[in-house]
Amino acid sequence: MFDWFSEQSRVSKEMAGHKIAHATLKGPSVVKELVIGLALGLAAGGLWKMHHWNEQRKTRAFYDLLEKSEIGVVVAEE
């Protein structure tokens, strides 16, 4: 005699055996995040320092020209 329910469970078990390659999701890697954060922090800090040095250079040049009387900050009277 054919048992329909046992045949269905056998088929479903066989079908469940097929595996599909999925990306395995893991938790965050602490070391990887630290390295990435350190690299991004150093890059941003370097850019900020370069900007600061450039502004300092412009300010120093302005005061040097002001001291040499090549420029003035008072509007000349007509």
From TrEMBL:
Role this protein plays = This protein is one of the nuclear-coded polypeptide chains of cytochrome c oxidase, the terminal oxidase in mitochondrial electron transport.
Regarding protein family, the annotation reads: Belongs to the cytochrome c oxidase subunit 5C family.
Q: Provide the alphabetized UniProt keywords.
A: Membrane, Mitochondrion, Mitochondrion inner membrane, Transmembrane, Transmembrane helix
Lineage start: Eukaryota, Viridiplantae, Streptophyta, Embryophyta, Tracheophyta
Source organism, top-level taxon: Eukaryota
Instruction: List the subcellular locations.
Output: Mitochondrion inner membrane
Q: Does the keyword Chloroplast apply?
A: no
Q: What is the protein name for this chain?
A: Probable cytochrome c oxidase subunit 5C-3
> Does Plastid show up as a keyword for this record?
no
Which InterPro entries has this protein been placed in? COX5C
